[in-house]
Amino acid sequence: MPELPEVETTKASLAPLLGKMIDGVQIHHPKLRYEIPKDLVNLVGFKLVNVRRRAKYLLLDFLQEQDNNHKTLLIHLGMSGSLQQHTHQQVRKHDHVIIEFGDVWLHYHDPRRFGMLLWVENDDYIDRPDTAKRFLDHLGVEPLSDEFDKDYLYKTIYRTHDLTKKSIAKPIKSLIMEQSVVVGVGNIYATESLFLSGIHPAKPANQLDESSLETLTHHIKTILAKAIKQGGSSLKDFTVGNGKTGYFQQTLLVYGRAGEHCTVCQSLLENQKIGGRASVYCPTCQPLT
Predict the structure, then answer these.
(1) Catalytic (active site) residue 35
(2) Is 277 assigned a catalytic role?
(3) Percent of the chain whose pLDDT exceeds 70
């Protein structure tokens, strides 16, 4: 599944399309998680004026200058979606939408069809039309923002804002992957950050002190920034831009390496399922106690 670095990489790849006019929209396979709005074709004559990211969502802002008409498209890449730019109009299998920007065709490609393209406002194609509220309002802080630091995580875990509630004892890995706490720390990046921090993924969150939380937030930020710089992790079928793949996966220290030797101490890496997700760790470098 494309995570925050892959979505941020996709966002950056769309920069050459900013300011370009849409000359045509083709909907080839409308069935995704939600049906693609039929009136997406009405974007003809609009310009792409801004591309934003919130968590793992892309928000594409369009403007029709003649009528000062604004529209925003919410895109989620799901499990296997990608936005790819081509200089030809050839329709491939699993191309759901093609948007024509002059001599560049932007293909939304999604073999597993878990992605979505919806209007942010007044979307009549889903049960609840408050798309932005439904998908965006519950999200936590951005991990690369100044707001995400050891103090934020400490206050979240120990509920210093509500002393009537108990501190959070769930595994730390589950907590940092919770989108209402911090967005975009997917399995790959949570696994790598915990290894670099020397923290067992199953360790209860309320057993971590401020020093450990400072180390963890530092490594989450560092890992995500490094992944973005390297174009994300091209596991399975994620590609971006003109079809090129990222190569952060070539630097992974523990994710997907269960049974191999730890690069630090040579112990065998182990795998434990936490919150339904595979969690590879080093029993020596990341002791549970």
Answers:
(1) no
(2) yes
(3) 89
